[in-house]
Design brief:
Number of strands: 32
Distance between the termini: 13 Å
Bound molecules: ligand PGD, molybdenum(VI) ion
Strand content: 15-25%
Mean pLDDT: 94
Low-confidence stretches: 1-35
Radius of gyration: 27 Å
Number of helices: 29
């Protein structure tokens, strides 16, 4: 029998076909609720902002920014390409060897890109059978379906919730704690300031602009990072950045950016810059603190009234404890910041109102807890926490934080968890002594070393023996560190399932791949403006789902049907019933406070406006009365020294912030003799992580020879014989990749940037695009996580440390392999 026929025979015999009634709303129902002619400008939203779209001949023709968005991002030009691109998954597909051998397949073939098209019923049945096998053989500790990620916006179709609710109806599974964004920050700050801070609303921009004399942007690039938001962005922050630029010009505010590179924000604002050696910010902060302390410039009253433990910190600062004074000369050697610059900076910080605005990058490093803690100590010594335009913020570069919130209730979401009273098919809570929740970035460790016990935030975590992973709405073969280590881990997994829109590398390394449609192919509602919560947005379907893709709701409704739990899953409601419910619940919550029309009118208008909010100062209540409004720390005060952390007795996170050397550090630090270059893998200017990389024409606006750009310092590049537009091989002992050279004065000697989210495209040793299964395979497109280090930040947070990473690079002179990242697999059968 020919292989094709053989596979057809397998498919015909091994699967039962379940019937699949659609829960999608028919067009007639849309007409009933007052939808406009579908060839009008319809409304929708995305992480990149709200926009309107117009169809022509059944396809999306034009996209324009939403009329209330005065600062739309350039990424709006990539939106059409999210729907129409060659990376779309067209059909449910199963990896060839998995189809043949199931859980006994050769897992080393994962990534060889040989997939077989199957029907939805076949794929979902196989998915269910795999879950049965795992729950029967290993119980819930064998299954990890707990990773989350940036999915698409929309309160109903938020895909990770659908997957977790449906898989949860089958059985329990391992979950995660924390996230990749702020893992170290959100763990340390509750001990120090009593809340995660990173996701808290911050002092309103108007108050900062009116009251601050100096703004310190520390590792912070808001002009780049405010382009996207967790919900549809309003981009109002850009109006405040424009006002800030004006104030700098008029000499009314000083903005000082502390960063190893010249950022987009620096270039836009034309602000002052202080260059700092990568990963050395704690040393710089300590030296500022030393200057303030030794010149008696610190706010003793504030420290006494609002904080605990300064007396435990001072002996370390002065060197009484370890013989090393953390003074400007000490710091100059580590940080590369001249001592007189540090002195002047310290003086500036206490000579008027100073607002510290911290970015998140410096806590995605080894010991990432320390700069966040030390920055809080510095803000305490300055004594302006709780004043408008003073104190510290850990979020003004994110999702409209700082734009005054409307104060309205926002629409709820489709439930992630089982409803009360529902029980899973495999109702087993026994994790066999292993932990049911693990730190988010430690799942690869767990697969590689099941049973290992690690410290995490004062507790012990025992790694479960994970045999199956399910991913939806996140892209671990983009977001996790060290691809080759991941490959080793994936060899140990029996089954991997991915639900995605596109053939990401995660799908490529999966066994069962299910095609979801984009937001433009389904109806939804969203919060307009993340933290600003400006209103409710209708997300109106533009076109029918392409190929054989389905909405996440439909996928898991069908899956629940196979479990015999369709009604439990949907609560008997259609897509449109859910939209109405979410809207009407929100309307009821806002009753008497914010006027919302009937659903039909809202859907017709595309939008409900809540109006502007009141300016607000973070921590003002605490400052006003720390006894009535204590912080959430054990003492209710700012904890410069934490007895709780001290009791953990960790060697890499002590009772107060300290400077610690890194495992890898450039500019003379460990490892720099072998690989002298620090690679920063910052968040992309023209993508949201890996999302938008698939938008083919838009990608060509920045790709170099069809590769991801690597930004190089001119002197370093010249030394290696590299010029703009060359293809470069970047490497270290963990991996290698190709990228396209952009030589730029924005990057200092010893520093390169490759933006995270560049699609992993390994190629075989012979350059074949369907290869790349080997450990060490060359990435043909330029995914920086081919090279990054996969260690926890410390025993406290165990968070992502992607920015502790040294590499070297050279001009690539070999035969250039084709880019394998974007075109999907070979189809067999
Ligand atoms: P995304 O690329 O947004 O990244 O990692 P995350 O995994 O969140 O992945 C979302 C996936 O969901 C995409 O594959 C997309 O196609 C899919 N998707 C979108 N909409 C839908 C839908 O409707 N249905 C389904 N089923 N799928 C959908 C981000 C993570 O990366 C984050 S937040 C941070 S902060 C980290 N940052 C860095 C970093 O700075 N440097 C490095 N080296 N690595 C990082 N990794 C982390
Ligand atoms: P990055 O741009 O990666 O953003 O927000 P985050 O603040 O982490 O890094 C900010 C700055 O830190 C960069 O200018 C970098 O040079 C600097 N930096 C790096 N290392 C050091 C260091 O050692 N010392 C100092 N002083 N500076 C350093 C990320 C946030 O952005 C997150 S988590 C998400 S999920 C969102 N992602 C995106 C996105 O993917 N694309 C866009 N356009 N916008 C985003 N916004 C959000
Ligand atoms: Mo993030």
């Amino acid at each position: 029998m020919k292989r094709r026929n053989f596979l057809k025979a397998i498919l015909a015999t091994s699967f039962t076909i379940a019937s699949t009634a659609s829960v999608l709303t028919p067009l007639s129902a849309l007409a009933k609720v007052g939808a406009k002619n579908r060839d009008d400008w319809l409304t929708t939203g995305s992480h990149f902002g709200a926009f309107r779209m117009k169809r022509k001949n059944g396809v999306i023709d034009q996209v324009k920014p939403f009329e209330l968005d005065k600062y739309p991002t350039d990424m709006i030009n990539g939106i059409k390409g999210l729907v129409y691109n060659p990376s779309r998954i067209r059909y449910p597909m199963v990896r060839l060897d998995f189809l043949l051998k199931g859980h006994k397949s050769d897992t080393r073939q994962r990534g060889d890109f040989r997939f077989v098209r199957v029907t939805w019923d076949q794929a979902l049945t196989l998915f269910k059978q795999s879950l049965d096998e795992i729950q029967t053989n290993y119980g819930p500790s064998g299954l990890h379906a707990g990773q989350t990620g940036w999915r698409a916006t929309g309160q109903l179709h938020s895909c990770t919730s659908h997957m977790q609710r449906a898989v949860g109806m089958h059985g329990n599974f391992v979950k995660k704690i924390g996230d990749y964004s702020t893992g170290a920050g959100q763990t340390i700050l509750p001990y120090v300031l009593g809340s995660t801070e990173v996701y808290a609303q911050g002092t309103s921009w108007p108050l900062i602009l009116d009251n601050a004399n100096t703004i310190i942007l520390w590792a912070n690039d808001p002009y780049k990072n405010l382009q996207v938001g967790w919900n549809a962005e309003t981009h109002e922050s850009f109006e405040y950045l424009a006002q800030l630029k004006e104030k700098i010009k008029q000499g009314k505010i000083r903005v000082i950016s502390i960063d190893p590179v010249a950022t987009k924000t620096q270039n836009y604002l034309g602000c002052e810059k202080i260059y700092v050696n990568p990963q050395t910010d704690v040393a710089l902060m300590l030296a500022i603190a030393y200057e303030l302390y030794s010149n008696n410039l610190h706010d003793k009253e504030f420290i006494k009234a609002y904080s605990l433990g300064f007396d435990r910190f001072v002996p370390y600062l002065t060197g009484a404890e370890d013989g090393i004074a953390k003074d400007v000369l000490w710091a100059e050697k580590i940080t590369g910041v001249p001592s007189d610059v540090i002195k002047a900076l310290a003086k500036t910080m206490v000579s008027g109102r100073t607002q510290l605005l911290m970015g998140w990058c410096i806590q995605r490093q080894q010991h990432g807890e320390q700069p966040y803690w030390m920055a809080a100590v510095l803000a305490t010594m300055i004594g302006q926490i709780g004043l408008p335009g003073g104190g510290i913020s850990y979020g003004h570069h994110y999702s409209s934080i700082g734009v005054p919130s409307s104060g309205a209730a926002a629409p709820g979401a489709f439930p992630r968890n089982l409803d009360e009273g529902q029980t899973p098919l495999f109702n087993n809570e026994d994790f066999k002594g292993a932990s049911s929740t693990i730190p988010v970035a430690r799942w690869v460790d767990a697969i590689l070393e099941p049973g290992k016990v690690i410290d995490a935030n004062g507790a012990k975590v025992t790694y479960p023996d994970i045999k199956m992973m399910v991913f939806s709405g996140n892209n671990p073969w983009s977001h996790h560190q060290d691809r080759n280590r991941m490959k080793q881990a994936f060899h140990k997994l029996e089954c991997v399932v991915s639900i995605d829109i596109n053939w990401t590398a995660t799908c490529r390394f999966s066994d069962i791949v299910l095609p979801a449609c984009t937001t433009m192919e389904r109806n939804d509602i969203d919060i307009y403006g993340s933290y600003a919560n400006r209103g409710v947005l209708a997300m109106q379907k533009m076109v029918e789902p392409l190929y054989d893709s389905l909405s996440d709701y439909e996928i898991f409704t069908r899956f629940a049907k196979i479990l015999g739990k369709e009604k439990e899953y949907t609560r008997g409601m259609s897509e449109f019933d859910w939209l109405k419910k979410l809207y009407n619940d929100c309307k009821a919550d806002n009753d008497g406070k914010f006027v919302m029309p009937e659903f039909e009118q809202f859907w017709q208008d595309g939008y409900v406006h809540f109006g502007d909010g009141e300016p607000w100062t973070r921590h003002a209540d605490f400052r006003e009365d720390p006894e009535i409004n204590p912080l959430g720390t054990p003492s209710g005060m700012i904890e410069i020294h934490s007895r709780k952390i001290e009791r953990y007795q960790y060697d890499d996170c002590k009772g107060h912030p300290i400077w610690m050397e890194k495992k890898e550090r450039s500019h003379g630090g460990p490892g720099s003799d072998k690989h002298p270059i620090w690679m920063q893998s910052c968040h992309p200017n023209k993508r949201l992580h890996s999302q938008m990389c698939e938008s083919q024409e838009y990608r060509q606006t920045y790709a170099i020879q069809n590769r991801e750009p690597v930004y190089l310092n001119p002197e370093d590049a010249k030394h290696r014989g590299i010029k703009n537009g060359d293809v470069v091989r970047v490497f270290n002992d963990r991996g290698q990749l190709l990228a396209g050279a952009v030589v730029s004065n924005n990057f200092p000697k010893g520093v390169i940037r490759i933006e995270e989210g560049a699609w992993y495209g390994p190629v075989g040793n012979d350059g074949s695009v369907n290869g790349g299964t080997e450990i060490g395979a060359l990435c043909s497109y330029g995914d920086p996580n081919t090279l990054t280090l996969d260690i926890g930040s410390s025993k406290l947070a165990q968070a992502c440390s992607a920015y502790t990473c040294l590499v070297d690079y050279e001009k690539f002179t070999g035969k250039l392999p084709a880019v394998s990242s974007f075109n999907g697999p070979l189809e067999i059968g």
